[in-house]
Amino acid sequence: MSRSRRRDRKALLSLAKQFRSKDISAIEALCRVIQISQLPPEMAIEWFAELVHQLGQSAELRTRPLVHPPVRDALDHLVAS
């Protein structure tokens, strides 16, 4: 995995966590997601919503986010080039 892709994955995961904890607004999070992701804006927003949802699921299951396959899948889609 390239360094920039790894950096983007970390940034997106951090954004999702900040959004879930209400540290940033939805508008701010979505604007940053669109800037980071190479996907068209509509797809980036959909995958970010999935990422936030799956983070909630991993918290309920008490698994680490990157071990939870749906979280990894959402991140992979967001950083796909």
Structural write-up:
- By secondary structure, the chain is an all-alpha fold.
- It is built from four helices and no strands.
- It is globular and about 30 Å long.
Name its key features:
4 helices, 81 residues, mainly alpha
Q: Structural class, from secondary structure content?
A: mainly alpha
Q: Strand tally, please?
A: 0
Overall radius of gyration: 12 Å
What's the mean pLDDT score? 87
Major sheet: size, sense and barrel closure?
Answer: none
What is the chain-wise order of helices and strands?
HHHH
Task: Estimate the global geometry from the Cα principal axes.
Answer: globular
Q: Regions with pLDDT < 50 over 5+ consecutive residues?
A: none
Portion of residues in beta strands equals: under 5%
- Ends: how far apart? 12 Å
Helix tally equals 4
- The amount of helix comes to over 70%
Compact summary:
The chain is globular. It contains four helices and no strands. By secondary structure, the protein is an all-alpha fold.
